[in-house]
Amino acid sequence: MVFEKICELIREQLPTEGKEITRESRLVEDLGADSANVMMLIMDIEQEWGITVDDSLLTDVKTVGDIVEYLEKNA
Question: For residue 62, which phi and psi values (nearest 5 degrees)?
């Protein structure tokens, strides 16, 4: 459930058309995100789950799975 919602948010933020999103997908290298995209994605996550995301997530997150794991522990 968390993974599917994250995929939906990623598709809204990134030019992922035609790309498969997996837990192993790297935001920058595989999905074409830049720092602004990641920041917007974090803001969307905060709004969707009603949480405040630690700033450390901005530097620690590399893959879709990293985001899912963070939310499963903190949301």
Answer: -125, -35
DSSP for 34-65, written as a single string: -HHHHHHHHHHHHHHHT----THHHHH--BHH
- Of residues 40, 14, 35, the one with CA closest to residue 25: 14
Give me the residues paired with residue 63 across strands. 26
For the segment 3-51, what is each residue's pLDDT rounded down to a tens digit?
Answer: 999 999 999 988 887 789 999 999 999 999 998 998 899 999 999 999 9
Q: How many angstroms separate the CA atoms of 63 and 60, rounded?
A: 9
17, with CB counted inside 10 A (0-12, 13-18, 19+), is: exposed
- 12: domain range? 2-74
9 burial (CB, 10 Å; 0-12 / 13-18 / 19+) is middle
Domains identified in the chain, total number:
1
